[in-house]
């Protein structure tokens, strides 16, 4: 689910009526089909979700024991086995010495299935440096992935698209380049379907997810495993201070950031911009999570029987964590954001660490990560790492 996904697309059911096929206005039962489809028993299924493993509801009272149990539950529902024994075998290319940093392309094996290429930026000077695992968004824009956050010095044909993306969502900045200028090693890799691993056509997402499920695996699980391994690769670089690694992302990248922090002890701090909500509050008619397509990158089958979305993010407690959201972000209803923020703050508070979590809604902003938000995140990272 991502704010850039075309909202006008429809999920069709044979016999649903000509209004559906035309993509026009519908009411009643037809609207339920368009937005889901939502069967008559949909409310009962939502009511049945009690998230019994959530911290505070679970019978496990020791937080460290709870974290182990909750993480193990998430791991099980990824449907993609751990890849710890796969050598990264990095290969470097495209080295370029810029004014503030050295830029390289790095190709690594995050899993045993495929080699993945990313951008690696290293500040000038003596390390080891703090580092940021930078995670790109979805955006229904697949020709660029890592290029959404790091200026593509290696490919002029992608620069125009990348700059347009930065202009639209990031106040014209390349977030990765700005972080490197401020003294951070930055790693940003393509997720499956984007950049060098694409471009995926929009309509292919659902078929891709279906293929994973038929194989007893999961598209969302693969992305989670790759991000978990990317954090481990970054921590193993000599240039990086392994105690000072943050995960940062916008939109789907924000989801990836807090999910990686939940799954990896290599992440010391997390900043997530425009992706946090309660599951039930998000699953309402009109929300993209009910439409398929991009939602499959963030759907772990069966996990909601155990944990709500903020419960998963809470596995990272009490490490420093930041969540920003735009008050005009139509993708995340305000009620769901507040439910999630309340749950998150309660977990950190129970650990006497409420000062380590920051939640903020920007009432005048939508689904963006503009300069003012970035500057607050950068200052926060300087303070906590």
Helix and strand arrangement:
Blueprint: H1 18-22, H2 28-34, H3 42-48, H4 63-78, E1 91-97, E2 101-109, E3 115-123, E4 129-135, H5 156-169, H6 175-181, E5 185-189, H7 204-214, H8 219-235, E6 240-250, H9 252-263, E7 269-273, H10 279-282, H11 309-313, E8 321-326, H12 334-350, E9 357-362, H13 371-384
Parallel strand pairs: 4-5, 4-6, 6-7, 7-8, 8-9
Antiparallel strand pairs: 1-2, 2-3, 3-5
List keywords for this structure.
385 residues, alpha/beta, nine-stranded mixed β-sheet, 13 helices, 9 strands
**For the largest beta sheet, what order do the strands appear in spatially?**
1-2-3-5-4-6-7-8-9
**Oligomeric state as shown:** single chain
Give the low-confidence spans: 3-35
What is the number of beta strands? 9
What is the structural class? Answer: alpha/beta
C-alpha termini separation: 30 Å
Describe the structure.
By secondary structure, the protein is an alpha/beta fold. 35% of the residues lie in helices and 17% in strands. The chain contains 13 helices and 9 strands. The protein has helices at residues 18-22, 28-34, 42-48, 63-78, 156-169, 175-181, 204-214, 219-235, 252-263, 279-282, 309-313, 334-350, 371-384; strands at 91-97, 101-109, 115-123, 129-135, 185-189, 240-250, 269-273, 321-326, 357-362. Strands 1-2-3-5-4-6-7-8-9 form a 9-stranded mixed beta sheet, with helices on both faces. Strand 6, helix 9 (252-263) and strand 7 form a beta-alpha-beta unit. Helix 8 crosses helix 9 (252-263). The two termini are 30 Å apart. Residues 3-35 have low confidence and may be disordered.
